[in-house]
Amino acid sequence: MEFPSFIKIASLSVQHILEVNTTETGEQILNGVEGRLLRTLAKSLNFQYKHMIPSDNILGLKGDNGNWSGVMGMLQRKEADFGMCGIAMLFDRLEVADFSKVFKIQRLSFLVEKPGSLPAVWAFVRIFDTVLWGIIIFVVFVAPLICSFLLNHKFSVIDLVVQFFGSISRQPLEFQMTSTRSRIFITSWLVFALVISSSYSACLLSYLSLPLQGKPITTFIDLSRAVRKGTHKSVMLKGAPSVYLLTKSGNEDLEFLGKTVLDNNWFYLPSQGIETSTVEGNTAIINADFALKLLLGKLPPGSFLISEDSLISFKFGIALRKGFCCTERLNTVLSRVLAAGLIDKYQRDEWVKVYISSIKKFPLNTSGVQQLRVNDLIGTFYIFIGGTLISLFTFLGEILHFQIKRKKFLNFAPCFDLWKP
């Protein structure tokens, strides 16, 4: 059967995916990955097309009465022949439409802002993990006790604590090793102190070169917990079934995330999927990989990331109305397009457009010099000032204590004179 000479296309208008531009003469020109794909198919199969956008501007969901909305609804009512613009092959959609050959597979991931650098005030403490700090403090207090009771040193425990702590700061120990047992113990301690001090110095130097970064959100579980804490919100594509994958996942965290999105109506329109305003204010956007990469290219370099985790993988194809005559011939041409690598080329072309505009908007900083600022060492200054104040108050307290004791001694001195012979 001869391929139809005129095809009605139902889809959305999304930048870089399927853009619809109308000339002054009323001619529709489609751009973007799927727009260029459609133009290629039209040229190969020799057909004209008319693009239509659904009134609700969504891909389509199934209602309680069995009727579909959006693009899928137009295919169900046979108002259109093709449905395009990122339509995934889902089992429910097979009730009202057929699908062509798969032309791309995409993961459902999310894009979120990186937490950025941690405050420099306590950076010198964050260099080691909390557990490691606890172990170091425990060893610093236990080692002097062992040294005092087992090695029979005459120093007080407090003096030993000060000396052992000073050895970690690369200060020498002031007592002698008189036995083989003490030599083994002190040598093992010096090795421990050398490893700890050297590791801390190396980590501190690396921090001064590159400040510590906060822990990023990389999985859907982390995202759900961040939403639960109220630090982030998550938005999903309006009119897509992705949110119901979360609510029916069987995982408590994922179900909470899906229900929160539904309850708060955290949805974005398809045309907003690659707009930078969508991810403002600690907002994570859930979308297909390619759309997220395009959005990432429009954002400041190094400020956002795409999750390592994915919710599901979707197969994308052209949705066809039931009873379409020439599915086999369409698949033949589509197979040739895929074999030629045209889909990958179309995606690279769109990415290059985004990359070029990003370079103009965010020029690369070629300066390799990173100055050390006061803020980078502000925590160390705080410790120095705090230690100095404590020493000053201790010194004043000792003077006051000495004066009080001296005054009491002078008051009792006449009493001692009475006992002289």
TrEMBL record:
Gene Ontology annotations for the cellular component aspect, listed alphabetically: plasma membrane
Source taxon at top rank: Eukaryota
Span of domain Ionotropic glutamate receptor L-glutamate and glycine-binding: 14-77
Stored Pfam families: Lig_chan, Lig_chan-Glu_bd
Membrane topology type: Multi-pass membrane protein
Family: Belongs to the glutamate-gated ion channel (TC 1.A.10.1) family.
This protein's name: Glutamate receptor ionotropic like protein
Subcellular location per the Swiss-Prot or TrEMBL entry: Cell membrane
SUPFAM superfamilies per the UniProt record, alphabetical: Periplasmic binding protein-like II (SSF53850)
Location, primary (coarse class): membrane
Annotated GO MF terms: ligand-gated monoatomic ion channel activity
InterPro entries reported in the protein's UniProt record: Glu/Gly-bd (IPR019594), Insect_Ionotropic_Sensory_Rcpt (IPR052192), Iontro_rcpt_C (IPR001320)
Residues passing through the membrane, by range: 131-151, 184-208, 381-400
Annotated keywords: Cell membrane, Glycoprotein, Ion channel, Ion transport, Ligand-gated ion channel, Membrane, Receptor, Transmembrane, Transmembrane helix, Transport
Organism: Argiope bruennichi (Wasp spider)
GO BP terms in the entry: detection of stimulus involved in sensory perception
